[in-house]
Design brief:
single chain, 62% helix
């Protein structure tokens, strides 16, 4: 049962990171070019999605448009 939960968590992480990456404008991606991030998220098992979430996503903006 624990093994199934771990597999589901990894799949959910991949799906979330991939969808988040695809919904992000290529102009706002940090670190690597957009196509490279898509490949990293899809090809590198657990580390790829975590790298996207920590260092590839755009910085957060508040509703007024200032950086947090």
């Amino acid at each position: 049962m624990l093994r199934l939960l771990v597999v589901l968590a990894v799949v959910a992480l991949h799906v979330y990171a991939f969808i988040d990456c695809m919904r992000t404008s290529p102009a706002h991606v940090r670190g690597l070019p957009f196509a490279a991030w898509v490949l990293v998220v899809l090809v590198v098992p657990v580390v790829g999605p975590l790298l996207w979430l920590w260092s590839g996503r755009p910085e957060a903006f508040d509703p007024v448009g200032r950086r947090r």
